[in-house]
Amino acid sequence: MSIDPAPVDPPDGHSAPVFDRSVLYAFLGEDERALASVLQTFLSSMTESMRALQAAWALRDLAAVAKLAHRIKGAAFMSGALAMARTAQQLEQIAGSADMLSIGAATVLLEESWRALQSDPGLQGTLAGG
Asked: Regarding predicted confidence, which is higher, 48 or 29?
C-alpha cells in the first residue's frame, strides 16, 4: 500500500483547511471564550496523543498506532482541525497493513499536520479570543 502524497485533500479536490472555526461554531455558537477553552483542552489532549503516537510508532506497536490515529481523527474533526483529521484518518487506515514504509510516512505527515495546526493564524486568533 502506498501513501498519497497529499492526504489532506478530500475527494472533491479542495484542500481541507488546517483549522475551520465554523466546526466549533456549529457546536458552541459564537462564544469566543468557550471556543478558546475547548481549543485549549483539545491542544493539551493532542500534545499527549501525539507523544503517545510517537512512542507507539517507535515500538512498532501498530495496534496502538491505529487506536491513537482513530482518537486523534475524532478529536481533530470535532475541533475543526480538518487537515489533521484527514491525515489521521489515512494513518488509521494504513496502520492495519504491514507496510511499515507507508505507516512511517503517514506518521510523519500527521506530525507535520500537527505542527501546521499549532502555528495556524486562524487557530491562534481563536485562542486569543478573536
From this structure: 48
Q: Is residue 9 part of a domain?
A: no
Q: What is the pTM of this model?
A: 0.86
Q: Kindly report the CA angle at 114 between 112 and 119, in degrees rounded to 5? A: 95
Domain enclosing residue 119, as ranges: 21-127
Residue 87 near residue 125 (C-beta atoms within 8 A): no
Domain count, the chain: 1
CATH number of the domain at 61, please. 1.20.120.160
Query: Residue 4: pLDDT above 80?
Result: no
Question: pLDDT (tens digit, 9 = 90+) per residue, 41-75?
Answer: 999 999 999 999 999 999 999 999 999 999 999 99
